[in-house]
């Protein structure tokens, strides 16, 4: 890998990437923890249906926030490729592809949320409508975790490139590597050993810490200083 050379263009792309990263963090956590999470209890279909029907604006806002997150994620994938392609074009391309796959899966899983909403509002004649809606809500959660498998691979690649870029402290790369391992482990447990998923959930705090730190570092990136010009000769 060839270390990156800081330029004004690279610094500008880094700051824009940091801005998109911040949007992703705010909308992603906001949708999952602040908006959708309080409405959904996968162990109680009736309570979940009642909560969603009582707060339709909140549920729809969560979908909108996830959509903004997905759009920002696609833009971030492209920007990070532009930043790191001069260093390791193959790895930069691989990281972009894995992140875009994650974005597509998460965006596609929003259809499950919309289906749950339609079931609750337009399928009153079906038997056990709340349970059917809950199945689609659970499908969305599994689709999200499937996307995080690909994002975990992206995080491992990004951790390697960030750590060897010469522009960022190696701690940022190490943090992304840890985040990648957490995503892969957490998604694997959710998909294949769900009984252990809740026990592992606190580890996601490491991913929030690592990604927020890298986001702030991107936002603070500045281009090379312009050499001081000579004296004008006016005394």
TrEMBL record:
Pfam families: DUF4386. The chain crosses the membrane at residues 16-35, 61-84, 96-119, 139-160, 167-186, 198-219. Keywords: Membrane, Transmembrane, Transmembrane helix. The keyword Transmembrane applies. It comes from the Bacteria. Signal peptide: none annotated. This is DUF4386 domain-containing protein.
């Amino acid at each position: 890998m060839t270390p990156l050379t800081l330029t004004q263009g690279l610094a500008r792309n880094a700051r824009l990437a940091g801005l998109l990263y911040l949007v992703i963090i705010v909308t992603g956590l906001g949708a999952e923890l602040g908006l959708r999470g309080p409405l959904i209890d996968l162990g109680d279909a009736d309570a979940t249906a009642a909560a969603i029907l009582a707060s339709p604006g909140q549920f729809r806002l969560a979908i909108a926030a996830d959509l903004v997150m997905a759009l920002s994620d696609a833009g971030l994938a492209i920007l990070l490729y532009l930043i790191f392609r001069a260093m390791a074009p193959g790895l930069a391309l691989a990281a972009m592809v894995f992140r875009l796959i994650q974005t597509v899966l998460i965006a596609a899983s929003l259809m499950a949320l919309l289906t749950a909403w339609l079931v609750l509002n337009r399928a009153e004649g079906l038997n056990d409508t709340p349970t059917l809606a809950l199945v689609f809500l659970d499908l969305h959660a599994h689709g999200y975790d499937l996307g995080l498998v690909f994002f975990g691979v992206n995080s491992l690649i990004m951790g390697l490139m960030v750590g060897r870029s010469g522009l960022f402290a190696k701690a940022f790369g190490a943090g992304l590597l840890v985040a990648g391992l957490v995503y892969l482990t957490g998604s694997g447990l959710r998909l294949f050993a769900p009984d252990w998923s809740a026990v592992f959930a606190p580890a996601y705090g490491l991913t929030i810490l690592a990604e927020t730190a890298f986001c702030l570092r991107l936002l603070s990136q500045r281009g090379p200083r312009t050499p001081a010009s000579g004296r004008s000769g006016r005394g």
